[in-house]
Design goal:
With 488 residues, the chain is an alpha/beta fold. The chain folds into 3 domains: 206 residues, 3-Layer(aba) Sandwich (Rossmann fold), CATH 3.40.50; 105 residues, Luciferase, Domain 3 (Luciferase, domain 3), CATH 2.30.38.10; 94 residues, ANL, C-terminal domain (GMP Synthetase, Chain A, domain 3, 2-Layer Sandwich). It is 29% helix and 27% strand. The strands form 6 sheets. Strands 2-1-10-9-11-12-13-14-15 form a 9-stranded mixed beta sheet, sandwiched between helices. α2 crosses α3. The chain is globular and about 75 Å long. It binds methylmalonyl-coenzyme A (MCA) and adenosine monophosphate (AMP). Adenosine monophosphate binds next to β13, β20 and β21.
Length: 488
């Protein structure tokens, strides 16, 4: 019996995961993950080369069964980002599909191959699952997340955060073993991996991953038995754009039981276009790497565009003034405050960063999210912005301005750099770089700087627009005044 994933033993013949034409039942998943779990048993942490493949799903199940914390790694991470993650998390081994070419930082580790039989055995004798750790506080994941400055921090997520958030979503979304989820999210973040893969498996339902997101894949899966869709707003924007010319997509989305958006705010215009074309209201939920899920519009509740719903069962939520401890006036729908949360969904700490961990909490164990919101009279939360302007949300990815500025400053043609976010209809925000070149006659080009950042950090962190300036606006202390930069 698996505490986190009971269906592995209980319903071996039911479909569990599918990527393209490769699929596993729960029994087959247990059979593939169990030997892998024994190979890594006793390790403290393992890196997981998180390609959007069946192997990643098997790897994550193996790590959960073995009670070893998984560190999902973006296969597109550049050398600087990857070097930091490997040095900081010090994994005992790396789990990767056979044949994957690993960059040097990972190739230096012990490699454990995720072997998935090409022709699974079908119904067979039940697999004896390993004894999972009984301690709910044992780390299950270390997920790296960007801050305003410096390299990403590893949020250590215990098993209890994973189980409590998924059980709360079961309740809020009426999520059951009869549901089949479709998604095309990357598997190195909470949204795609914990909600999108571990989520359906905890409920005993199924997941079909598209490999990569495209509107036709969504239509195909929803038209052939999938019941739920998870996506970031950029994906819903692309669906909204495609709807007017794709009646099959409209029909498929209309037939879904639940469409869920998260990771950033879904613009009103896209909400409205999808509702008009499909009759469906997209449900928004609000979460964070450090807190997993905090609030959601309930499946049986009223979805209002702009609302991220009510606190999930077990989650306490308050809005505070700038001092971080005084609660804003209750019942005043105009009162803006920072969202603070407390509950079993919270992370344990930032790995190796006691300073950052301490700074993230207010007295009483309240986690400071940095998100600003108001509360409607019915208790539902409306996010209106972020405290830090140096955090950019692009395509649903959180990107720290400081991290990109540091990478840009490593380019020989860059003397000074500032990074901001500019509104973007597709990505929500896009990364904009403001550069003072070393040689004004011969400044580095936009493509060259994008390539430079993509190779060091990750492609989604690359600047989409580059402006050249003679000097950056600064105050008397020399601090860059980003608000004085023209609109990006
Ligand atoms: C372009 N590309 C490049 C370069 N330029 N590669 C290297 N160097 C360059 N200079 C490549 C990209 O790698 C990609 O390759 C392609 O060009 C297009 O990239 P891009 O425009 O960045 O993105 P996109 O393909 O248009 O993707 C949009 C997307 C994506 C699919 C919406 O942004 C996405 O998957 N977002 C999900 C983010 C997410 O999961 N967030 C969850 C974290 P190729 O074409 O080969 O792919 S938040 C979270 O977990 C919390 C808990 C929460 O609340 O959910
Ligand atoms: P990450 O740190 O990448 O896990 O992203 C978490 C952040 O994404 C939150 O602090 C919010 O700013 C944002 N976020 C997540 N879900 C939503 C949502 N439904 N609406 C608005 N912002 C969201």
């Amino acid at each position: 019996m698996s505490r986190l994933l009971p269906a592995l033993a209980d319903t071996p013949d039911r479909p569990a995961v599918r990527f393209g034409d490769r699929a596993l039942t729960y029994g087959e998943l247990a059979a593939a993950a169990t030997p892998l779990a024994s190979r890594i048993s006793g390790a403290s942490r393992v890196a997981l080369w998180a390609t959007p493949t069946l192997e990643t799903a098997v790897g994550v199940v193996a790590a959960l069964l073995a009670g070893v914390a998984a560190v999902p790694v973006n296969p597109r991470s550049g050398d600087r980002e990857l070097g930091h993650i490997v040095a900081d998390s010090a994994p005992d081994a790396v789990l990767a599909a056979p044949g994957e070419h690993l960059p040097p930082a990972l190739a230096a580790l012990d490699r454990v191959s995720i072997d998935v039989p090409t022709a699974p055995a079908g119904p067979g004798r039940p697999v004896a699952l390993p004894e999972e750790p009984a301690d709910p506080e044992a780390p299950a994941f270390v997920v790296y997340t960007s801050g305003t400055t410096g390299p990403p921090k590893g949020a250590v997520l215990p098993r209890r955060a994973v189980s409590s958030t998924l059980d709360a979503l079961r309740d809020a979304w009426r999520w059951t073993d009869r549901d089949t989820l479709v998604h095309g999210l990357p598997l190195f973040h909470v949204h795609g991996l914990i909600l999108g893969i571990v989520g359906p498996l905890r409920q005993g339902g199924a997941v079909r991953h598209l490999g990569r997101f495209d509107t036709q894949g969504v239509a195909r899966e929803l038209a052939s038995g999938a019941t739920m869709l998870f996506g970031v707003p950029t994906m819903y924007h692309r669906l909204a754009e495609a709807l007017p010319t794709d009646p099959a997509l409209a029909k498929a989305l209309s037939s879904a039981r639940l469409l869920v958006s998260g990771s950033a705010a879904l613009p009103l215009h896209d909400h409205e276009r999808i509702a008009a074309a499909t009759g469906q209201r997209v449900v928004e939920r609000y979460g964070m790497t450090e807190t997993l899920m905090n609030t959601s519009v309930r499946a049986d509740g009223r979805s209002r565009p702009g609302s991220v719903g009510v606190p999930l069962p077990g989650v306490e939520l308050r809005l505070t003034e700038d001092d971080g401890t005084t609660e804003v006036a209750a019942g005043d729908p105009e009162a803006v405050g920072e969202i603070q949360v407390r509950g079993p969904n919270l992370f344990l700490e930032y790995l190796n960063r006691p300073d950052a961990t301490a700074a993230a909490f207010a007295p009483g164990g309240w986690f400071r999210t940095g998100d600003m919101a108001v509360r409607d009279p019915d208790g539902s939360v409306r996010i209106i912005g972020r405290r830090a302007t140096d955090l950019i949300k692009s395509g649903g990815y959180k990107i720290g301005a400081g991290e990109i500025e540091n990478a840009l400053l490593e380019h020989p043609g860059v003397r000074e750099a500032a990074v901001t976010g500019a509104p973007d209809p597709d990505l929500g925000e896009r990364v904009v770089a403001w550069i003072v070149p070393v040689d004004a006659q011969n400044p580095p080009g936009e493509g060259e700087l994008a390539e430079h950042v993509a190779a060091r950090l990750a492609p989604h962190k690359r600047p989409r627009t580059v402006h050249h300036l003679d000097a950056l606006p600064r105050n008397d202390m020399g601090k860059i005044l980003k608000r004085s930069l023209p609109d990006g």
